[in-house]
Fold:
Amino acid sequence: MARRTKMEAASTREALLDAALKVFRSQGVAHTSLEEVAAAAGVTRGAIYWHFRDKADLFTALCERVQLPMEAMLTSAGATRHDDPLAALRVLAVDGLTRLATDPRTQAVFDVIFHKCEFAAEFESVAKRQDTADSGCLVNVERLLKQAVTRGQLPRDTDTRLAARCMNAFMVGVMHEWVQRPDAYDLAQAAPAMIDSLLAGLAARPPMCAPRRRARQHVAARKAGRQTAAGT
Structure:
């Protein structure tokens, strides 16, 4: 009996999360009450408070059922040494987009996070998790790009930090736009070509480190100084 009760409680919790996802996506997090979620799940108001302290707790649990945008792309991949770092980055990026394209639950949660939620103080834990994931991804992408520099796939003076931010902006931008208009194109099919275009551009014209630009400026300044001295 106890086991059955535990299973029923777990089933009710999942039903509430499914209902919350549906209602949040339909009318937004801020405009949804816990009573509306309970009604959508077909349970009483008391049932929802049994499982969740408040709407923030419910929203946090909902987000924890899937990986956040950049968690879906990488975890600790940058800590591994690769013979072909750019190929490894390609695989990870394509996999991140493909997983989004083929997982309806992840699509729905991303849609809520991107388009149906204002990160007020009550949702600080979710915003913090997203910031942590983005920061960790940037670190790992930059590690892979630094490996690409070491392997000669990118110039020695490539600004790997800026390149990582470009990669991050591209990935989040694609995810953000596609979950809003998933019928615009087949993301799973398009992902390899999209990432190939990004990496080809990065390899052909990577952002360069500021020190090189400063060095050129110093050379020009010294040259101008010598010309001024010669004219006096």
